[in-house]
Amino acid sequence: MEIVAQIRNRLADVPDPELGISVVELGMIDEVSVDDAGDVVVRVALTTAGCPLRAQLTRDVREAARGVAGVRSVRVTFGEMDAAARRTALERARRAAQERQAVTTVAPSVPVLAIASGKGGVGKSTVAANLAVALARLGHVVGVLDADVWGFSLARLLGVEGPVEAVAGRMRPVRRPVGPGELRVLAMGLLAQEERALAWRGLVVQKAVAQFLEDADWSGIDYLVVDTPPGTGDVPMTLARLLPRLGVVLVTTPSRAATGVAARTADFARGHHLRLLGVVENMAPATSASGEEFAPFGRDGGRELAESLGVELLASIPLDHALAQAGDEGRPLALEGDGGAFGALARRLRDDVAPPAGQAGCSARLLDALARAVAGDGAPGAFPGELRGQSS
Ligand code: ADP
User: Fold this and answer.
1) Pair 161, 290 in one domain
2) Ligand 1 pocket check for 316: Cβ under 6 Å
3) Nearest CA to ligand 1 atom 27
4) 392 assigned to some structural domain
5) What is the bridge-based pairing of β-strands 170-172 and 165-167?
6) Which of 112-116, 233-237, 246-250, 367-371 shows the lowest per-residue confidence on average (mean pLDDT)?
């Protein structure tokens, strides 16, 4: 197959960061050209110019095109769709929204941060809990879902207690104000029959996770942080099927044993068209009060993994006894000071890697208005003109 066709093939797997639908399907790939030296130019047409998610789109498109043999460099340029192309794109987005709206109560534009690891014990739940707190401290309403149904430690780490109430026939995640924001937590540990969950397998687990998304009230959240079971299983697939803006944050220690299995999880994620947002290295070297360095898990493994995967190292969190102790006490360390490494991670996600819908401001808000209208509870006035098929 010629290079351009191969690149187009790979771009078919790149979702628009907001709509979660293939950029090819949305008609966003205007032109792909390659010269004799293998230097590629991909022209992307945005639904709205001035979209702050350009950086991510550039990364994703570049990464996809780079994987094709014979490609030396990839340049991504941007233009804006004309009215007709935009109508077609939004019509496709609308159809996808209709299909999805029926199943979950998570608005399609809500960024979902799936915290994943290759194996247990690397601090995945600790990262999920502290990241959720740090995002809430930025003023966001953060949904927290413990999909690690066997490990379920999230509620305890956050110091949140049940019971989960049902309101109007839906489970209501347990609310906890954090600074200017709020956590809304749903976790196996908050439900009555948690012992039973330990015996669950395969399909039942998938169903439980699907129910957490379908039968709980997630309206009004800005982010959803999901603690996923370690390894490559069906749960991430269930999540990805139900949540268009799912992105994977890969947690690993610097040790080769951990980065090796984390790389397999990354391969699995990519193989299933899940978006990899970056790597968080946990249990990185720490320095004692006397200035001595302590590195039981080695060093730099997170950075090396991120480089080999072509994604960013989002944070490196040192070994810190206080972090473990705070978790045991149900008072996440990210509540202290400026949130430390977790505060920085939350700001990085908000500002660059996974901005909330309101901030993203291109197609996501249109899509939300549309999803509400489809669900029948949106004010008709909020329905954007283009979506009704008028030319602009
Ligand atoms: P996982 O979800 O990957 O199984 P946990 O978040 O439960 O891992 O963490 C495993 C253990 O390691 C917990 O006791 C936790 O408090 C501790 N821990 C996690 N991160 C750190 C860290 N950076 N420094 C010290 N202890 C940590």
Assistant:
1) yes
2) no
3) 324
4) no
5) antiparallel
6) 367-371
3-class SS at 235? helix
Q: Do residues 234 and 205 lie in contact, with contact meaning Cβ atoms separated by under 8 Å?
A: yes
Domain of 94: which CATH number?
A: 3.30.300.130
Same domain, yes or no: 56 and 179: no
Return the DSSP state at 377: -
Quick one: which of 94, 104, 101 has its CA closest to 363? Answer: 94
Q: Are residues 170 and 39 part of one domain?
A: no
Placement of tokens 């439980």 in the chain: 208
Written as one letter, the residue type at 311 is: V
Each residue's pLDDT tens digit, 73-83? 999 999 988 88
Atom of ligand 1 nearest to the CA of 284: 23
Asked if residue 283 has its Cβ within 6 Å of ligand 1, the reply is yes
Q: Is the distance from the beta carbon of residue 90 to the nearest atom of ligand 1 less than 6 Å?
A: no
**376 and 317 in one domain?**
no
Are residues 158 and 97 part of one domain?
no
Same domain, 119 and 264: yes
Contacts with 329 (C-beta within 8 Å, 6 or more apart), sequence order: 159
User: Quick check: is 233 in a domain?
Assistant: yes
CB atoms within 10 A of CB 175: 11
Write the pLDDT tens digit of every residue in 245-293.
Answer: 788 999 999 999 999 999 988 888 877 767 889 999 999 999 988 989 9
Domain that holds residue 90: 2-104+360-387
pTM of the model: 0.75
80: nearest Cα among 43, 41, 48? 48
CB 186 within 8 A of CB 145: yes
